[in-house]
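// run 5 | inverse folding | seed 20
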């Protein structure tokens, strides 16, 4: 399977969750900023431009009437070890991160681990100082393929937020899995 936008979460993956997002632009450049916690760092920066066969995909989804947004960046490393190292680098940057989004001060919580479709993910929920949930970040790897997604301004309770982030992480792990 070629590496491209098919490796990104698709609308069908989150439609049943109640997220009403419209697909935005996708690219295969790896030039999209990864998360609010990583600032302007891109997948190209993280991999030093050394993805296997230039394998990058970036996607954006936006709420039609809300500020809710989902961004995702995925890549393929040359080796499984390299993919694991990139995921560990992202996890280090995300742990305890505080950042601002839409005028709110947010913090990522302690990650929860998930294993699904032969891959692994770390899920970080984001909340404000009052504990109000606003989405989160997931870092995931399946074989040589890995990525990060961020859901912002999904104003739901903590339980629904955790379920939503888990659903997105499972979908991401399924999409980056190589067939066979």
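// decoded
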């Amino acid at each position: 399977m070629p590496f491209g936008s098919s490796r990104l979460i698709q609308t069908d993956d989150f439609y049943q969750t109640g997220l009403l997002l419209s697909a935005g632009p996708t690219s295969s450049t790896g030039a999209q900023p990864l998360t609010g916690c990583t600032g302007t760092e891109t997948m190209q920066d993280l991999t030093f431009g050394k993805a296997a066969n230039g394998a990058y995909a970036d996607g954006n989804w936006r709420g039609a009437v809300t500020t809710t947004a989902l961004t995702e960046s995925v890549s393929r490393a040359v080796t499984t070890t390299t993919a694991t190292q990139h995921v560990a680098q992202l996890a280090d940057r995300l742990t305890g991160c505080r950042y601002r989004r839409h005028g709110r001060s947010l913090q990522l919580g302690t990650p929860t681990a998930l294993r699904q479709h032969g891959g692994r993910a770390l899920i970080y929920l984001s909340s404000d100082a009052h504990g109000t949930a606003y989405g989160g970040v997931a870092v995931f790897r399946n074989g040589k393929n890995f990525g990060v997604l961020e859901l912002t301004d999904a104003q739901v309770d903590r339980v629904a937020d955790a379920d939503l982030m888990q659903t997105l992480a499972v979908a991401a792990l399924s999409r980056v899995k190589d067939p066979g």
